[in-house]
C-alpha cells in the first residue's frame, strides 16, 4: 500500500470526527432558528456546553460503528458503495445511541435535534469524504500516490487496461512497462527496477495464462514484496461470491448463488416497474419525435418488430426463454438477413456468437443517429413493464446468436436481459464478447441496489460520448 493512501486512510478518523461534530452543532443551532421555532416553540432548557458534553461520547460511538462497518478499510471503494456504507453506519450508530440512552434512563430533550443530527451526519460525512477523495485525486496528477505497474500479457484485455490507465490519471496507475509473458530475463529486469524503487505492482492481464506462469509471477511478487493483480477469466468471475469452509482440515469452497434470488428479485422487479414508468414519461417527447423522423426519412414501419420473412422478432430472455422484441427501426426494411449472407464478410466479430457489420449500409440516416445515442432502444422500457426485460442486466441477443454460446457463456441467461449493464458502461460495442460476458457475470454475482443505481447514472454519460456505439 502506498504511504499516501495510508496517510489519507488515517486522516479519515479525525476528519470524520470533525464532520460528525459539525453535524451535531448544526442540528443544535437549527432547532433554535426562527423558521423552526415559529412552527414549534422551544420548551426545553439546553445550552451548547451541556449539549456538547452529551454529543462528544456519541461521536465516539459513531466512529466505532464506522470502523466496524469497514469505513476505514484500506481498499478503495466506489462512491456508491461508500455512500451506502455511510448511510448504514450513521443509521446504526443513531439507533445504538438511542438504545444506550433508553437503558441508561437518559432522555434527550429534543427529537428534532436527534433526527436532524442523523440526516446532517450523513450529509457532512459524505461531503467530507468527497473532499478527501478530490484532494487525493488531485495529488495523483503530480504523481503522488500513483501505483507504478508492469503489465504482463499482450491481449485485448491488457490493451484496454493500458488505454484506461493512460487516459484516466485519477485511477492512480502509471504503466512502467508492458510485456507479452513472464520470463527469467524479465524477472531479472523487474528485480532491478524494484531495487531502484521504480515499480510497485505487477498486473497479469492474460486470462489464458498457464497455471505455471501465474504461480511464478505470484512467487516473484511475494519475494520482491510487490503488489499483484490479475484480470479474471470466466471461471474466476463466476465464483467471485465464494465462501471457504473447512471440513476435516480440507478447505471446501462454496459458490454462492446470485443475490438476485429471493428478495433481491422482488426488489429489482419493483425498481424496474417504477423506474420504467418514470423513464417512459420523461422519454415520451423524444420517442414521439423519433417516430416522426423515421416515417419522414424512409419507407417502412416505425418499429422493428418483424423479420424479413414476416415472423415476429424475438430475443432470448431469462432462462433461455424467447420473448417478442421490438425497438425503433434503424435499418431499411427487408435487410435483416443480409448480415448472414451478402454482408457476412464485413462482420468485425467473427469467431464470436455476435455479428457486427462495419459501416453497415443497411442503416438509414435517422437510424445512424438514433443508434449512436441508443434512442432506438427507448421502446424497451415497455418490455421492462411487461416483465421480459430489466433496466439493468446483460443485453438480449438473437436466438441464433445464443445457440452459438459456449456452455460457460450461458451464465448471462440466469437473469432477465437489461437495457443497460456493466458491459454497456465499460465499452459498449468495443468489447470482445468474452469480456462482455465476464462483466455481466460479475454483475450477476455481485448485484446490489447501489450497483444498479450506479450503472443507470453512468449510462447517459457513456451514451452522450458515444463510446462503442454500434
Automatic annotation (TrEMBL):
InterPro entries for the chain: Bact_transf, EPS_sugar_tfrase
Keyword field contains Transferase: yes
Gene Ontology cellular component list: membrane
Protein name: Bacterial sugar transferase domain-containing protein
Superkingdom classification of source: Bacteria
Annotated Bacterial sugar transferase domain residues: 268-464
Subcellular location as annotated: Membrane
Annotated Pfam families: Bac_transf, CoA_binding_3
Membrane topology: Multi-pass membrane protein
Primary location group: membrane
Native organism taxonomy: Bacteria, Candidatus Uhriibacteriota
Entry's Gene Ontology molecular function annotations: phosphotransferase activity, for other substituted phosphate groups
Similarity comment: Belongs to the bacterial sugar transferase family.
Transmembrane regions: 7-30, 50-74, 86-106, 112-132, 273-294
Origin species: Candidatus Uhrbacteria bacterium CG10_big_fil_rev_8_21_14_0_10_48_16
Keywords: Membrane, Transferase, Transmembrane, Transmembrane helix
Amino acid at each position: 500500500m502506498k504511504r499516501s493512501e495510508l496517510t489519507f486512510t488515517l486522516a479519515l478518523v479525525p476528519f470524520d470526527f470533525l464532520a460528525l461534530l459539525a453535524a451535531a452543532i448544526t442540528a443544535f443551532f437549527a432547532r433554535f432558528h426562527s423558521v423552526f421555532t415559529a412552527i414549534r416553540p422551544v420548551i426545553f432548557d439546553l445550552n451548547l456546553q451541556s449539549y456538547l458534553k452529551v454529543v462528544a461520547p456519541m461521536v465516539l460511538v459513531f466512529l466505532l460503528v464506522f470502523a466496524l462497518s469497514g469505513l476505514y478499510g484500506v481498499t478503495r471503494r466506489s462512491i456508491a458503495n461508500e455512500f451506502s456504507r455511510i448511510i448504514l453506519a450513521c443509521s446504526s450508530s443513531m439507533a445504538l445511541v438511542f438504545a444506550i440512552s433508553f437503558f441508561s434512563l437518559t432522555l434527550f430533550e429534543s427529537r428534532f435535534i436527534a433526527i436532524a443530527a442523523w440526516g446532517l451526519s450523513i450529509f457532512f460525512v459524505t461531503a467530507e469524504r468527497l473532499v478527501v477523495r478530490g484532494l487525493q485525486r488531485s495529488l495523483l496528477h503530480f504523481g503522488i500516490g500513483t501505483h507504478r505497474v508492469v503489465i504482463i500479457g499482450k491481449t485485448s484485455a491488457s490493451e484496454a487496461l493500458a488505454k484506461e490507465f493512460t487516459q484516466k490519471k485519477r485511477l492512480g496507475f502509471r504503466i512502467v512497462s508492458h510485456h507479452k509473458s513472464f520470463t527469467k530475463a524479465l524477472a531479472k529486469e523487474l528485480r532491478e527496477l524494484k531495487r531502484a524503487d521504480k515499480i510497485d505492482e505487477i498486473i497479469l492481464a492474460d486470462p489464458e495464462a498457464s497455471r505455471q506462469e501465474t504461480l511464478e509471477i505470484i512467487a516473484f511478487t511475494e519475494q520482491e514484496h510487490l503488489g499483484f493483480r490479475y484480470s479474471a477469466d470466466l471461471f474466476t468471475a463466476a465464483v467471485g461470491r465464494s465462501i471457504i469452509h473447512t471440513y476435516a482440515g480440507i478447505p471446501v469452497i462454496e459458490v454462492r448463488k446470485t443475490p438476485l434470488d429471493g428478495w433481491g428479485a422482488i426488489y429489482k422487479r419493483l425498481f424496474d416497474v417504477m423506474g420504467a414508468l418514470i423513464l417512459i414519461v420523461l422519454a415520451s417527447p423524444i420517442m414521439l419525435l423519433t417516430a416522426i423522423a423515421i416515417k419522414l426519412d424512409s419507407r417502412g414501419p416505425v418499429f422493428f418488430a418483424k423479420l424479413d420473412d414476416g415472423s415476429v422478432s424475438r430475443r432470448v430472455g431469462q432462462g433461455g426463454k424467447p420473448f417478442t422484441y421490438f425497438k425503433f427501426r434503424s435499418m431499411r426494411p427487408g435487410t435483416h438477413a443480409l448480415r448472414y449472407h451478402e454482408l457476412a464478410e464485413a462482420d468485425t466479430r467473427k469467431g464470436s456468437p455476435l455479428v457486427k457489420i462495419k459501416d453497415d449500409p443497411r442503416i438509414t440516416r435517422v437510424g445512424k443517429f438514433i443508434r449512436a445515442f441508443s434512442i432506438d432502444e427507448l421502446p424497451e422500457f415497455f418490455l421492462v413493464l411487461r416483465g421480459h426485460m430489466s433496466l439493468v442486466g446483460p443485453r438480449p441477443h438473437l436466438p441464433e446468436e445464443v445457440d452459438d454460446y459456449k456452455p460457460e457463456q450461458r451464465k448471462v441467461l440466469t437473469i432477465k436481459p437489461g437495457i443497460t449493464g456493466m458491459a454497456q458502461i465499460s465499452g459498449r460495442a468495443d468489447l470482445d464478447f468474452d469480456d462482455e460476458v465476464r462483466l455481466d457475470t460479475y454483475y450477476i454475482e455481485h448485484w446490489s441496489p447501489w450497483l444498479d443505481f450506479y450503472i443507470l447514472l453512468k449510462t447517459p454519460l457513456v451514451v452522450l460520448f458515444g463510446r462503442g456505439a454500434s
